[in-house]
Structures are given as C-alpha cells and as structure tokens.
Write a structure and sequence with these properties.
Elements lengths: L7 E4 L7 E7 L3 E6 L5 H9 L4 H14 L4 E4 L3 E3 L17
Antiparallel strand pairs: 1-2, 1-5, 2-3, 3-4
Length: 97
C-alpha cells in the first residue's frame, strides 16, 4: 500500500488504529498528523475536501507547515480506512492509491 498526500490512513501498530492525515510520502513511509490532534476547523476543511484531490493535498501541506506533531509511519504499519485513495477520488495516474 502506498498512500498519497492528503489521504487519511489507519495506523495499525496502535490498537485503536488512529486515523492519520498523510502530509508527506517518502520512499518507504509516510509522515502525517493524527486527526485527533487537529483543530475542529481543520477537520471541517478535511471533510469539505473529500473527493477533491488538489484541495486535499493543499490542506495536507498547510497542516504539515503549521503542526509540530508530525509522525513517521512505515507503509507496512498503515492501511487504507475502507476506501481506496483519497475518499471520493479515483487513484492518481500511475496506479498508486
């Protein structure tokens, strides 16, 4: 599984599998912010950008610049949350989800 910037994934190494907003994709891992750490207004923006890949990526980049609690999670320790790619979007060209 290779998530993309702006996608929300589940972190599988924690029993509750908390949702993580992917803010950056590396060769073998993602960096991101737990949704529980985001302000209510940011969560509203996240919900409003479902299905809009460009807006979701822009929001993820803004969160990365503003937030100090960034986590690095290997691909093997995260999974999709029941939907492929960014919720409501088709996978980007090249087949990555």
């Amino acid at each position: 599984m290779t998530p993309e910037t702006g996608e929300v994934v589940a972190v599988t190494t924690v029993d509750s599998e908390p949702p993580l907003l992917v803010t950056h994709v590396e060769a073998d891992a993602v960096r991101g912010v737990l949704l529980a750490d985001l302000a209510a207004g940011t969560i509203e923006q996240l919900n409003a950008t479902a299905g809009d890949r460009d807006q979701r990526r822009a929001l993820a980049q803004a969160v990365q610049q503003a937030d100090s609690m960034i986590f690095r999670v290997p691909f093997t320790d995260c999974r999709h949350r029941g939907e492929p790619g960014i919720r409501g979007c088709h996978p980007p060209q090249g087949g990555r989800e």
